[in-house]
Amino acid sequence: MRNTRRVAAVWMTMSLAVSTVLGNTAWGDVLQEPGKNRCVHVHTAECYGNADETATMSQTGELEPTECTHVCSVESGCILDTENLENNDADAWKVGTPSNADQKGSGDAAGGDGNQNGSETEDGGVISVSTPSNAEDTTTTGGTVTPVTQTKILSWSWFDPEENLLDGKLELTGITEEAQPSFTEVTEYLPQAIIAQVGEGEDWEEKNLQITNWVCTEYVQDEEGRWPLEGTYEFKAELEDGYELADGVDALAVEVSVVGDQAAVTADTTVLYIAKANKAEIKNLYWNGNNFSGPPTGYSCWNREMMVEHVSGDNFKLTLTGATLGNIHIASGNWTIILKGENKLDGKGKSSSGIALKVGGGSAEIIGENDSASLSLEADPSKDGSSGIEVDSSLTITSGKITAIANAGSKNNAQTGAILVGSNGTLNIQGGEITAVGNGKKAFRINKNSSKVYVSGGKLNTTGTGANVFENNGTLVILGGTVTAKSESNGIGFFSENTGTTTISNDGKLDISRVHLKEGSITVEKGGELTSGSTVIENGSFINKGEFVSNGAFEMNGSGTFTNEGKISGSGSVPKELRQPPDPIEHEKEVHVLYTGSVIDVGSSAEVKQPTYAGPLHYSLVSYEGSGVKGEGTITEDGQLTVTKAGNFTIKVYTKETEIYKSGDDPENSNIAYIALTVEQSEDSKNWKLTVNAVKKMYDGKEVAPATITDSNIPENVNASYQYQLATEKNATLLEDNWKSSLTIKDVVDSKKYVFVRVVTDNYAPRVFVSADTTEIGKRTFSSSVAVMIEPDVLIYNGKPQMPKIKVFENWDGALKNELRENIDYKISYWEKKISGGTGSEIKDSEIKDAGTYAVQLMGTGNYDETTNGATFTIQKFTLFLMINGSKTKVYDGTVGVTDAQNLAIQLATTKEGTSPFDEIYVDHVEWEYNYADAGKRVLTAHDIKIAGPNVENYQLESTSVSYYGLIEKRDFASMTVSAASLTYNGTEQQPKINASVETGLENVSPDATFTYSKDGVNYQNEIPGFTEAGTYLVYVKASMANFNDAVKTVAVTVTPKESSSGGNSGNDSGTSTSGGSSSNNGSSGSGNSGNGSSSSDRDRSDRDDSNASVVKVSPSQSGKVTKDSQKGYRNEEQGVITGANNQAVNDGYSHWMKDAKGWWLRYSDGTWPMGRAGAYHWEKINGRWWAFGADGYISSGWIYDTIYQGWFYMDENQGMLTGWQFINGKWYYLNPNSDGTAGIMYTKRWTPDGWYVKEDGSWDEEAGR
Question: Exposed, middle or buried by CB within 10 Å (0-12, 13-18, 19+), for 1102?
Answer without folding.
Answer: exposed
